Amino acid sequence: MQEGDIVTFQNLLMCSESLIEKKDCKKLLDYFEVPAKKSKGFIKSDTPFSSLVHHLREAGKVSSDDINYLMTACSDKGLSKLMVALTLYQKAQEDEKQQLTDSLKTTEEERQQLTGRLKTTEEERQQLKDTLKATEDERQQFKDAVKATEEERQQLTGRLKTTEEERQQLKDTLKATVEGRLQQQKELEEAKSSLRATKDELVKSQLEYATESMALQEVLEQTREALNQQELVMLLLYFPRSGDDLERSIAQCDDAYSGRVVTGPSKDYYGIVTG
Fold it and tell me: Region annotation Disordered: residue ranges (predicted)?
């Protein structure tokens, strides 16, 4: 028989029936002063010991937690086998009580831990509540920021549209300015070309004028020389050939023709230089 075989009170009764004889059971009935009528009924039954124990339980002398009274009787009557069973049961009960005590202690510790966890959980819940409130505040701030950003985006869109229009106007103005500058450059080039042509024409005219002037000067010189030659011939024909008379004649001619131009030394008919 092992301790694990009689863990429960019912197992104890079942095991005890095989460990006690009816004569030994009669000793216990006499020890507990069970009435004769009941005692005979217990002995005649198939489970006299169990019947006795139930009788003692009803009388409040034995319980599943307290079998000391029964153990004392067995000890007094020398029922060693039954004492072994009762001792094993009692030890099993004590072990179970110890386990229950340890379990209760563990449960108390766990309860304390759960209380601590509950307190921690409550603190965490409060922290989460505060965090949730802070998150809600941040969400509202973010919502306000998004609204402000949307308004700024609308303003920037309007500014961008205005800037684009101004850029287009500047682009058109720049295009017109470039076209005007190109037109001015073209007109300037045309003016320069016209000026160069005018300058070339002027230079050409000046050259032609100079050439014509030189030609006229040459013709005039030739004409003057021819006139002077004619005058000299006339003087030689109409005046004497002596030097004094010739000089007088020339002087008279000079007085008569004060506008005559002398271009160089005069020669007489014979080639003599006279002045």
Answer: 146-166
Domain count across the chain: 1
Tell me the C-alpha distance between 242 and 204, whole Å.
Answer: 54
Tell me the C-alpha to C-alpha distance, in Å, between residue 267 and each of 6, 25, 41, 262, 275.
Answer: 191, 210, 213, 12, 8
Q: Would residue 171 be called left, alpha or beta, if left means φ above 0 and alpha means ψ between -120 and 50 degrees?
A: alpha
Q: Please provide the distance, in angstroms rounded to a whole number, between the alpha carbons at the two ends of the chain.
A: 193
The three-class DSSP label of residue 267 is strand
Who's near 83: CB < 8 A, 6+ residues apart? 71, 74, 75
Q: With contact defined as beta carbons under 8 Å apart, do 91 and 3 qualify? A: yes
- Could you give the CA distance from residue 124 to residue 117 in angstroms, rounded to a whole number? 10
Residue 37 lies in a domain: yes
In a domain, 36, yes or no: yes
Contact (CB, 8 A) for 275 and 250: yes
DSSP state of 262: P
Indicate if the alpha-carbon torsion angle 190, 193, 198, 199 is positive or negative: positive
Q: For position 50, which CATH number holds?
A: 1.10.533
- Average pLDDT, integer, range 212-223: 91
**Number of helices and strands in the chain (H, E):** 7, 0
Which pLDDT value is given to residue 63?
81
Helix ranges (DSSP H) in 46-79: 48-58, 68-77
Cα→Cα distances 227→146, 186, 261, Å: 115, 59, 9
**Inside any domain, residue 235:** no
Which among 74, 58, 63, 73 is positioned nearest to 19, based on CA atoms?
Answer: 74
**What is this structure's pTM?**
0.36
